[in-house]
Design brief:
The protein has 295 residues and is α+β, with helices and mostly antiparallel strands. The chain folds into 2 domains: 168 residues, Jelly Rolls; 111 residues, Homeodomain-like (Arc Repressor Mutant, subunit A, Orthogonal Bundle), CATH 1.10.10. It is built from 11 helices and 9 strands. It has a 5-stranded antiparallel beta sheet with strand order 1-8-3-6-9. It has a 4-stranded antiparallel beta sheet with strand order 2-7-4-5, with no helix packed on it. The longest helix has 19 residues. It is globular. It starts with 7 loop residues before the first helix and ends with a helix. The relative contact order is 0.11. The N terminus is likely disordered.
Length: 295
C-alpha cells in the first residue's frame, strides 16, 4: 500500500488499522455491487425471508424515492440518501409508491467481522437512513469501493478490507458526530442540520452540545442571523417542498418525514412560507414541468 500522500499521523493510523486487520481471522469483503432502475411497486424485498449467511447492504437512491420499513416504522429514502439493512432482519424495502417516476438505485453488499456491530450502532443513531451528499466522505468511499470491485482493482484482500472498514467508520461518523474537540455552537448547528427531520427540541440540542439552552439560542441566532426555531422550520419546510414536488406522498407522511407531528401545523407553516398550500404547490409545480417538457 502506497502511503506517500498521507501525513505522519494518518500513516500511523492506517498502519495500525492494517496491522489489526492482518491479525483478524476474517477480513471485510465485498459480496456484490449493482445499479438498477425500478418502475413499480413490484420491486420489494422482505429481509426476513432471505436465508443464508447475513449480507450487509448499503442501498443509495440516485433518482426517485425508495422506502424501508423496519419493525413497523416506514421511512422514505429520497435521492442522495441511503438505507442500511441486512438479510435476516425484520425489515422490508423497495420502490416507494410516493416516487414520481423511476426509482434509480445502486447498492453494495458486504460482510466482515464487525458489520453487525456497525450496522446496529448506525441504526440506533439514525434509524438506518443516512444523508449522503456528493461531497461527503462516505460517498467518496462508496463510489471507490464500487468502482474497484467492478474493475477488479483492489490491490489485495487487505486493501479491500481497509476500504470497507473506512466506509463503515465514515458512515458511523456521518450518522452522528461527537462534540469532542469541537466548538459546541458549531456542533449544535451541525446537529440541527443533520437531524431537522426528527422532532428534536432545543433542550435536546443544548444537552448534546454541553451548553445551556439560553446561551445556545443566543449564539445560534448570531450564527444564522435568525432564531434557531426559525432556522429549523426553514430546513423542514424546504425539505418538505422537495418531497411535495418530487413525490406523490400524502401530506401526513411528508409532515412526519420533516419532523412535524401535526400535519395541519405543517400545512399551515408551508402555506405561510410558500404562499400556497402543499397540494396547490404540487399542482403548480407539475403544470410548470409539463409545460417545460412540451417545449
Amino acid at each position: 500500500m502506497h502511503l506517500g500522500k498521507f501525513n505522519k499521523q494518518s500513516k500511523l493510523t492506517i498502519f495500525r488499522h492494517f496491522v489489526t486487520i492482518r491479525q483478524m481471522p476474517e477480513l471485510y469483503h465485498v459480496n456484490w455491487v449493482d445499479q438498477e432502475v425500478r418502475h413499480s411497486r413490484r420491486y420489494m424485498w422482505d429481509n426476513r425471508n432471505r436465508g443464508g449467511p447475513p449480507m450487509f447492504c448499503i442501498q443509495r437512491t440516485l433518482r426517485g424515492c425508495g422506502f424501508i420499513e423496519r419493525d413497523g416504522v416506514r421511512a422514505l429514502v429520497p435521492a442522495n440518501y441511503a438505507m442500511l439493512f441486512w438479510h435476516g432482519e425484520n425489515s422490508n424495502y423497495g420502490y416507494a409508491e410516493e416516487s414520481q417516476g423511476p426509482y434509480e438505485l445502486d447498492w453494495l453488499a458486504i460482510n466482515g467481522p464487525q458489520c453487525m456491530e456497525f450496522f446496529q450502532e448506525i441504526l440506533q443513531i439514525s434509524g438506518g437512513v443516512i444523508h449522503l451528499p456528493r461531497q461527503a466522505e462516505p460517498t467518496r468511499l462508496l463510489d471507490e469501493i464500487r468502482r474497484r470491485f467492478t474493475e477488479k482493482q483492489f490491490q489485495d484482500p487487505y486493501h479491500e478490507s481497509l476500504l470497507i472498514y473506512e466506509l463503515l467508520t465514515s458512515l458511523l461518523r456521518e450518522a452522528a458526530r461527537t462534540p469532542v474537540e469541537r466548538d459546541p455552537i458549531a456542533y449544535a448547528a451541525e446537529y440541527i442540520e443533520r437531524r431537522f427531520h426528527q422532532p428534536i427540541t432545543m433542550e435536546e440540542v443544548a444537552q448534546a452540545s454541553g451548553v445551556s439552552r439560553e446561551h445556545l439560542t443566543r449564539q445560534l441566532t448570531k450564527h444564522w442571523g435568525e432564531s434557531p426555531g426559525k432556522h429549523l422550520q426553514a430546513l423542514r419546510l424546504n425539505a418538505g417542498r422537495d418531497i411535495v414536488c418530487h413525490t406523490t406522498a400524502p401530506i401526513e407522511a411528508i409532515s412526519r418525514h420533516c419532523g412535524y407531528l401535526d400535519p395541519d401545523g405543517f400545512a399551515r407553516a408551508f402555506a405561510r412560507r410558500f404562499k400556497l398550500s402543499p397540494g396547490k404547490y404540487r399542482q403548480r409545480y407539475l403544470e410548470h414541468e409539463a409545460k417545460k417538457a412540451r417545449r
